[in-house]
Amino acid sequence: MIRPVILSGGAGTRLWPLSTSGKPKQFHRLMGEESLLQATAERCRGTGFLRPLVATGEEQRFLVLDQLRRIGIAPEAILLEPASRNTAPAIAAAAYWALARDEDEPMLVMPSDHLVGDLRAFRQAVEVAVDAANSGKLLTFGVKPTAPKTGYGYIEAGKRSGGVRQVRRFVEKPSAEVAAQLAADESYYWNSGIFLFRPSAYWRELEKHAPAVAEHTAAAMQTSTAEGLFVRPEIGAFSKSPNISIDYAVMEHSDEILVVPTLFDWSDIGTWDAVHEMFLADERGNVINGDVVAMDVTNSLIRNEADVTVGAIGLDRIVCVVTRDAAFIAPLNRAQEVKQLVDELQSRSDKHRHKDARLSGPWGSCQIIDQGAGYQTRHIILNPGAKLSPQKLQHRSKHWIVVNGSAEVTLGNEAIVVGESQSTFIPAGTAYGLANRWEVPLHLIEVQCGLHLGDDDIIPTEGN
C-alpha cells in the first residue's frame, strides 16, 4: 500500500489575480471540472493507495476539507504547517507522523498544483518505482522535455536498471542556451517534484544531509497537538527549521536517488503563459474563457472570472485575467513578472491588497457579493447537517432568501423552516440561529442593512 502525501501550501502568486493567499491556485479549476487539488487526490484513489495525508496552512484547512469532501475522499490527517518552511520540513513532518504510527509504507509525495495528463501512465510509473522504494531508495519522477524550459529543474539520468535509472546530477533552472542543450539530450528529464520513498528512508537521508531539518521537525512533531483530522506541529520548533526544499536538502546530496522516466504529460502550470500552452487554442491561437469579445486578437490568453464583459481589439500575445476584484494585463512573454506586481501591491496599504472575498469553514462558505455604505450582500452555503452558532446583531438587520435547499431558522425561541424561494427577516437585536438539517447544501442570499457592518457588532448568545 502507498500513502499519498499531498503538499498544498504556497500562495501561487504567479497566477494572480486568480490565485491569492486566501485561495491559491490548487483550489481553482484551471482545466476541467475539478480543482488541481481534487485532480491530485483522484490520481491516488482506489486499489493500492491508503487515504491521503495533506500538508497545508492554517488558512486553507477548511478549503482542503471541503474540496476533498466534494469528491468523496476522506483524508487520513491534515498537517497544518505553522510557518512556511518549504518542502523539506513539510515532508519531514509527514514522515515523522507516519513513523510515529509505526507506518513505513512508501509515501507518494505530490504537489497539489501540478497537472498530469495521463492517469494510466502515471500509475504505471508509480508501480515501476515501488520495488526500489521498498528497498530503501528515494525515487523521483522525470518527465521527458518537450521544449527548452528555463523555469524547470533538470535531472541527468545514468545507467538504466529495469524501469528506473541512476541519477548523475540535478541541474537547477538553466539559461535558455543550456535549456536547449538539455532538452535535446536523451539523458535529461524535467524534475517533476513528485517523489516516492519510505518514511524511514527519507528520515535516514535527512539526518545525514540536513540534520537541522530533522532535529527541529522532530521536536515540533513531538509536541504537536491534534484536533480531529488537524495535526499542528509546535510553531516554535518548526520555525527553527531551515527554509529549504527537498531537492536542496536531500535529493542533490544523497547517493540513494533513482529517477523513473515517465510517459505522462506534465506541467506545474506555474505561470499564465504555461496555462496558455496547456489549453487547446482556437484557430487564431487564442485561449479564451468566460464572457469575452475578441476582435483581431491572436496568440493570447483571456480569462474572465467576473460578471462583466471583457472586450479586446487588435492584440497579439497578451495575457488578460479578470476576476471579481482585480485584473492583470501583460505581454504573454512577461507573464512571470506578475510576482513582482503582487509584491508591489502587498507593500501598499490594505485597501490596495488583493484578498479573496470567500470565507470557508467546517460549516460551509460565505462569499461577499457586493457592499457599500450601509449594506452588504453575501452568498452563504451551509453544508448538510451544519449550523451557525446562535448570535444577535446590535446595529444591523438581515434578510435571508433561500435559493436552494431548506433552512431551519431560529428567531428568539421560535424555529421556522424557510424553503426554496422563500425569505425571512431578522431585526437588529434579535437572537437568531441557522441550521441545515437536510442532505443537500443550503444556498441563501443574505442582505445586511445598517450603519455598522463590522464583526464587533456580533454578540454570541446561548442556544442550540
UniProtKB/TrEMBL annotation:
GO terms for molecular function: isomerase activity; nucleotidyltransferase activity. It is an enzyme of class 2 (transferase). It catalyses: alpha-D-mannose 1-phosphate + GTP + H(+) = GDP-alpha-D-mannose + diphosphate. The keyword Transferase applies. It comes from the Bacteria. CDD domains: cupin_PMI_typeII_C (cd02213), GDP-M1P_Guanylyltransferase (cd02509). Residues 350-460 form the Mannose-6-phosphate isomerase type II C-terminal domain. Residues 4-283 form the Nucleotidyl transferase domain. Residues 290-345 form the MannoseP isomerase/GMP-like beta-helix domain. Keywords: GTP-binding, Isomerase, Nucleotide-binding, Nucleotidyltransferase, Transferase. Its EC number is 2.7.7.13. The keyword Isomerase applies. Belongs to the mannose-6-phosphate isomerase type 2 family. PANTHER family: MANNOSE-1-PHOSPHATE GUANYLYLTRANSFERASE. This is mannose-1-phosphate guanylyltransferase. The lineage of its organism: Bacteria, Pseudomonadati, Pseudomonadota, Alphaproteobacteria, Sphingomonadales.
